[in-house]
Design goal:
With 452 residues, the chain is an alpha+beta fold. The chain has 7 helices and 17 strands.
Length: 452
C-alpha cells in the first residue's frame, strides 16, 4: 500500500510539472509586461513634462528590453527630436513605420522633423503618404496647410502680415498726480503745488506689421529679415495724446545649429497729435543660443541716435543699450517663462545749461505664458524700471530719479487659424523724487489680431 501511494505521488508530480512550469513561465511573462508598462508610463510622463533628457535615457533603456514595441520607439523618437538628435529620431520613426505602416501621426511627426532640418522634399513625401490615409477633415486641412507652409519655405522669399485692432482705457490719460495731492519744490524752500484732477480716456489703436525674409544662400544659413511697423492711437477726449509710430528694420541674420546671430539696422519716427516729435536710428548685434530643446538664451547690443523736433531738440541724445534674456518652456502644454534685463546709458548730444536727456535706465521684465488648451492662453507679466538722471534740477534741487512698477494680466483665445482675440489689464505705479512725475494709472485693452 505504501509503495502504491509513493508510486502514485511520483506519477502525479511528474505529470503535473509541465503544467506548473507553464503557469510559472506565464506569470513571469505577465510580470515582465507589467513592469515594462509601468516603466513606459514613467518615461512618457517625463516626456510630457518637458524633461526630454531624462525621458530619452529612460526610453533608450526600454528599447533594449522591447525593441519591437511601437510606442516605445515612437516616444524615443519624439524625445530624440526634442533634443535635436535627429539621426536617432529618424531611425526610431522608421522602426515605428515598419511595425505600423498606417501610423499617420508618425508620418506627420517625421514630416515636422524633416521640415525643421530643412529637408523639405522629404517632409513633402511624408505628408503625401499621410494624405493617402482616411483622415478626418480637420486633420486633412492641417496637413494641407503644412504642405503650403513648406512650399513657401522652399521659396527664397517668405512673407507674413499681422493686423491688430485695440480698444483701450486709461484711468490717468495725462499722467497727473491727481487733485488733492501736493508736491514740494525744494529749490524754492519747499513750496508746495497741487496736482490736477486725474482724467480718464478711451482710445482706438491700429497696428500693422509686415515681415519679410529672403534666403541669401543655403537654407539655415544667411537670410535678410525685414520688418515694417505702423501704429496709430486715437484718443476719445484728449487728442493731444494721439500717437502715430512708423518704423522699419533690416537685419542680416546667420543661423547655424543652435546659434543665431543678427545685425539689425532700425529707423523709426514718432508723431504726437499729428506733428513730428522724435526720430530714432540704431544699429546693433544680437546673439541667440538654444541651450536645450526648451531653453533659449539671448543677448544684444544697440547704439541709438535720438533726434527730437522743434524746441525739444535740446533732448537729442545717443544711447548704448545692452540686454539679455532667458526663455524656458515647461511641459507639453507649455508654461513659458521669460526674463529680460536691459541697461541703457543715454548721453545728451548737445551742450545746454540744463540736461534733461542724460540718464541711466535699468529694466527687468518677467513674463509667464501658459497654454491652457488648443485655443486658450493665459499671460501674466511684471516689469520694474529704474531711471536715474545725471543732471541736478535747480527747480527741485536734486537729481531726478524715477521708479516704475507695472503688473499685467491677460488672456488670448484663438478664433481660427488666422485670428485671435485677447484682453489685458495692467496697473502701473510711478514713483519719483520729483512730484510731477509720481502718479498711478490703470489701463485695460481688448485686442483683435488677424494674420494673413
Amino acid at each position: 500500500m505504501i509503495k502504491f501511494f509513493v508510486k502514485s505521488f511520483l506519477i502525479f508530480n511528474l505529470c503535473s510539472f509541465p503544467l506548473y512550469a507553464a503557469t510559472s513561465e506565464q506569470d513571469t511573462r505577465q510580470q515582465t509586461q507589467l513592469a515594462l508598462k509601468a516603466d513606459f508610463e514613467t518615461a512618457k510622463s517625463l516626456y510630457e513634462q518637458g524633461q526630454f533628457n531624462q525621458a530619452y535615457v529612460a526610453l533608450e533603456s526600454l528599447l533594449n528590453r522591447a525593441p519591437a514595441n511601437a510606442l516605445v520607439n515612437f516616444y524615443f523618437a519624439m524625445s530624440a527630436a526634442a533634443l535635436k538628435r535627429n539621426d536617432q529620431a529618424i531611425a526610431a520613426f522608421d522602426r515605428v513605420l515598419m511595425l505600423n505602416p498606417q501610423s499617420v501621426r508618425t508620418r506627420l511627426e517625421l514630416a515636422k522633423l524633416y521640415f525643421d532640418m530643412g529637408e523639405y522634399d522629404l517632409a513633402h513625401a511624408e505628408l503625401d503618404r499621410a494624405l493617402n490615409a482616411n483622415l478626418p477633415d480637420a486633420v486633412r486641412q492641417n496637413v494641407l496647410d503644412f504642405k503650403t507652409r513648406i512650399e513657401r519655405q522652399q521659396s527664397r522669399h517668405s512673407h507674413a502680415t499681422t493686423l491688430v485692432l485695440t480698444l483701450g482705457y486709461d484711468s490717468n490719460a495725462n499722467n497727473d498726480i491727481g487733485a488733492g495731492n501736493n508736491f514740494a519744490l525744494d529749490g524754492f524752500g519747499g513750496l508746495e503745488l497741487s496736482g490736477n484732477a486725474e482724467a480718464q480716456d478711451y482710445s482706438f489703436g491700429q497696428t500693422l506689421v509686415y515681415n519679410h525674409s529672403y534666403d541669401l544662400g543655403e537654407r539655415q544659413a544667411w537670410t535678410l529679415n525685414s520688418q515694417i511697423v505702423g501704429f496709430n492711437r486715437l484718443n476719445k477726449d484728449y487728442s493731444q495724446n494721439n500717437v502715430t509710430y512708423v518704423g522699419a528694420l533690416m537685419a542680416p541674420t546667420y543661423q547655424h545649429d543652435i546659434y543665431k546671430v543678427a545685425f539689425p539696422l532700425e529707423v523709426d519716427r514718432v508723431f504726437v497729435d499729428g506733428e513730428g516729435y522724435l526720430s530714432n536710428a540704431s544699429l546693433g548685434a544680437s546673439l541667440e543660443q538654444l541651450l536645450s530643446a526648451n531653453q533659449t538664451l539671448a543677448a544684444s547690443y544697440k547704439l541709438r541716435s535720438m533726434q527730437y523736433a522743434g524746441e525739444n531738440s535740446i533732448r537729442d541724445a545717443w544711447s548704448n543699450i545692452y540686454s539679455m534674456s532667458y526663455r524656458h518652456a515647461i511641459g507639453k502644454k507649455p508654461l513659458i517663462l521669460t526674463a529680460n534685463f536691459s541697461y541703457e546709458n543715454r548721453q545728451q548730444a548737445k551742450e545746454a545749461d540744463s540736461d534733461p536727456a542724460s540718464l541711466t535706465e535699468k529694466i527687468l521684465k518677467l513674463n509667464a505664458s501658459k497654454v491652457l488648451s488648443a485655443r486658450w492662453r493665459l499671460i501674466a507679466s511684471a516689469s520694474f524700471t529704474t531711471t536715474d538722471y545725471q543732471q541736478e534740477n535747480w527747480l527741485f534741487a536734486n537729481k531726478r530719479s524715477d521708479r516704475i512698477s507695472r503688473f499685467d494680466l491677460g488672456g488670448q483665445y484663438q478664433l481660427n487659424r488666422v485670428s485671435l482675440v485677447g484682453g489685458n489689464l495692467s496697473q502701473a505705479v510711478h514713483q519719483s523724487n520729483q512730484g510731477p512725475y509720481e502718479f498711478n494709472k490703470t489701463q485695460a485693452n481688448l485686442n483683435y489680431t488677424y494674420r494673413f
